[in-house]
Design a protein that fits this description.
- The chain is α/β, with parallel strands linked by helices and about 300 residues long.
- It folds into 3 domains: about 100 residues, Rossmann fold, CATH 3.40.50; about 100 residues, Rossmann fold, CATH 3.40.50; about 80 residues, 3-Layer(aba) Sandwich (Rossmann fold), CATH 3.40.50.
- It contains 15 helices and 12 strands.
- Strands 2-1-3-4 form a 4-stranded parallel β-sheet, with helices on both faces. It has a 4-stranded parallel β-sheet with strand order 6-5-7-8, sandwiched between helices.
- α8 links the parallel β7 and β8.
- α4 crosses α15.
- The protein is globular and about 55 Å long.
- The mean pLDDT is about 95.
């Protein structure tokens, strides 16, 4: 089946099933174009409870679909690719969190949303890359355990020096591979370009950049900036979301900035998910209740 026929079938199934499609900005352009909403983790989290449709199809990775189910327990949530996971989320378990909490009983546990429902359930509050600094500042505790991303945690520690931040040793493989040397080389190749990076990058990368922020913040920065040339240091899917502007030139730092898990959701996978209502997300009620509390605290911040 050709692409146009697939798109038409998906649109028909979406209408027939009364489904709402959410897509992260790292999804392939064809998926982004079909979505009812495209956004970063924070924007999508805020949208979930406002969706009136009984069926949500989350084009992202597992932890995102879990979050949708936690915030909308009465709705059916589908993840089009059953094995679309997140390596970072797999780097910490609920048992790990309990162990580190026992070592630092006076600390608040701030959990990046890139984590499992079970890990969120063991945490005091969640955060995204958009609001991590504000969330950490909001905690009354002097000491903060930040899980699972060591790079985002290190960035937050630089922004909130008044807190003692203990970082877990997880990371995003896509962003963690970036080196300071790669940024230096890009600067030489494009000396007039502004560099915008995601805080999941190592801190020695972040400190060389003109702007650091979440995917949504990078998009806003590029679109509103008076500068005309940019080096983008995050997953390549963001380039579609930024959009084409004939007055602006984008350079991806390296073609290697590609999340294989995000790219597992294809048009056939989305069609099959809608057609067969597969793969439905479930979260144990007790886990969901505790995880929801941590997520809602974040949304209040």
């Amino acid at each position: 089946m050709d692409t146009q026929a697939l798109v038409q079938e998906i649109q028909a199934l979406k209408k027939e099933k009364n489904a709402y499609i959410l897509a992260h900005v790292y999804q392939i352009p064809e998926i982004q174009r079909l979505a009812d909403m495209v956004g970063d983790s924070l924007a999508l989290s805020r949208q979930i409870e406002k969706i009136p449709n009984p069926l949500i199809v989350f084009c992202g990775v597992r932890f995102m679909a879990d979050t949708a189910k936690i915030l909308s327990p009465g709705k059916t949530v589908l993840l089009p690719s059953e094995d679309a996971g997140c390596p970072m989320a797999d780097m910490v378990s609920a048992q790990d969190v309990r162990k580190i909490k026992a070592l630092y009983p006076d600390a608040a546990v701030v959990c990046y949303v890139n984590s499992s429902a079970a890990v969120k359930a063991e945490s005091d509050i969640c955060c995204t890359s958009t609001n991590a600094v504000e969330v950490v500042k909001s905690r009354p505790q002097q000491r903060v355990i930040f899980i699972p991303d060591q790079n985002l945690g290190s960035y937050v520690a630089q922004q909130v020096p008044e807190k003692d931040i203990i970082c877990w040793h997880g990371y995003c493989p896509v962003h963690h591979q970036i080196s300071a040397h790669m940024v230096e080389r890009a600067k030489k190749a494009h000396p007039n370009a502004k560099i915008a990076a995601h805080p999941e990058c190592p801190y020695e990368v972040v400190e060389q950049c003109d702007f650091v922020g979440s995917t949504a913040q990078i998009i806003k920065y590029v679109q509103q900036s008076e500068d005309t040339e940019f080096i983008i240091v995050t997953e390549e899917g963001i380039l579609h979301t930024i959009g084409e502007d004939p007055q602006k030139t984008m350079h991806l730092l390296t073609p290697a900035l590609l999340c294989e898990d995000m790219k597992k959701i294809t048009l056939p996978a989305l069609r099959d998910s809608l057609l067969h209502e597969q793969y439905e997300i479930t979260v144990p009620a007790a886990t969901a209740e505790r995880a929801r509390a941590a997520i809602e605290r974040m949304l209040e911040v």
